[in-house]
Amino acid sequence: MVQTALDMLAGALGWLAGLAVPLLGLLGAGLLALLLVGLLDRDRFRAGIGWAAARGPQVGRWALVALALGAGALAVEVTRRAVDLRLGAQLSARYANAADPAGGQTVQSAPRVSLLSSRTYSRSVALPADVYTRLNLGGGWEALLPYFGNPPSLTVQDLREGFTRRGETLLYTRDVTLQTEEPLGLDTTRARADLRFVGAAGGAASQAGNTYRATFRADYTFTNPRREAATARFLFPLPQGSGTLSGFRLTVNGRAYRASDLSQGSLWEGRVGAGQTVRVSVTYTHQGSRGWSYRLSDRREPLRSLDLTVTADRPARFERYSLYPTRLTRAVFGGPQTLRWQLQDVITAQNVAVVFAQSSVRELLAKAGLMQPPALVLAALLALGWALRRRLPLPPPRLAGALLGLALGFVLGGVLTAYLPPVAALPLGSLVGVGFGALALGRAFLPPLVVAALVPLAFLAAPHAGLLLTLLAAATLLALLRAGRARAV
């Protein structure tokens, strides 16, 4: 980051050096104009020179303020670009110095339940004797078998086929026993997903973003409706985009079950007595980011009783045309919230889809960094207004020192984002900048310095930045009015 900042600073100084030539040209033209005026009207020229000599020191002092303001703005802009380049390099880097969360937008599909049964299908084909003679098989009847096709092997339990001769007719017979599935709906679904947002890519604290760690727990029940025992199949699909699952456990009627092949999900098969109810529990932990979904539309079957709860420590939004929660509890200004879907006897083609739309760390820091140069200008204007309203002395060199100190705090905040989360790094840097400004101007100028430092920090609460800036402006105006009234009294 230091090398990047130095390169950008060198580029900025080169750009300023490029402006030196036209500025020198303008200065030379101004001096030439003054000489012409002196030749034409010496008295006015002498009076103008005397006025400039009398006010030159004061103008120079305020020029120092402008120079400090420009230097501070240049420093914070170089820092902002260096931080942005560092974050961009981390996101596109092939290697990292810490573990990355291998999770994306997680989609958990509802489980599927079915009853298995066996059915035998028979088929016979009679071949006339002249066909057999024309084929000239010479007794090799089995050579005809490939021409009759093969049944799907995934569901075949038994296959018997062959040729027999009945007089002058050749008879082909095939008996196939297939396994069939009869879909069976769930009686109840009680599921809960707890999402807690953590640090994101690269493992750096400054990368805290849209990555969460989720714990999923669900209890399902289904009943064999037949009058005789049957084989039931329960298939729990593994979530998509979840990365690595940990603590995965599937329990059937209180007994843990471990599948050897999870390519199609966790599959359980077992005999269920007539009218018997089976209780299945599933739990796992994983990492994800940006959103979480529970798919219900894969199979258009009735939902007899669904109770799904999602808790998150970040405000959530919902995908268009998805199921909206039947109950929602959340704080006024964001924070932890609880979403609940309770459905009874419905058939739906919609899914539960929750999205956590928050600005990325890179975007958040870019917005805060763009507001820091205007914050320096605001600090200068507020200090002038505060001095006028309260009749306080404001030496220009001290104001220049305060602006440089505040800019140094902003730069420090940007540097600290490489080691601390933005919500800690930026306020800490602003606090240091306000401290430097107070040392230069005195404690009497703390209010304007604090207001200017709070302007970039408002973007740490991205959804409410506009509200916070409006409240800050109103409080600043009220403070200035009260300061003027106190002076009048």
TrEMBL record:
Highest taxon above the source species: Bacteria
Keyword Membrane among record annotations: yes
Annotated keywords: Membrane, Transmembrane, Transmembrane helix
Transmembrane segments: 12-39, 368-387, 399-419, 426-446, 458-481
Name recorded for this polypeptide: Uncharacterized protein
Organism of provenance: Deinococcus budaensis
Taxonomy of the source species: Bacteria, Thermotogati, Deinococcota, Deinococci, Deinococcales
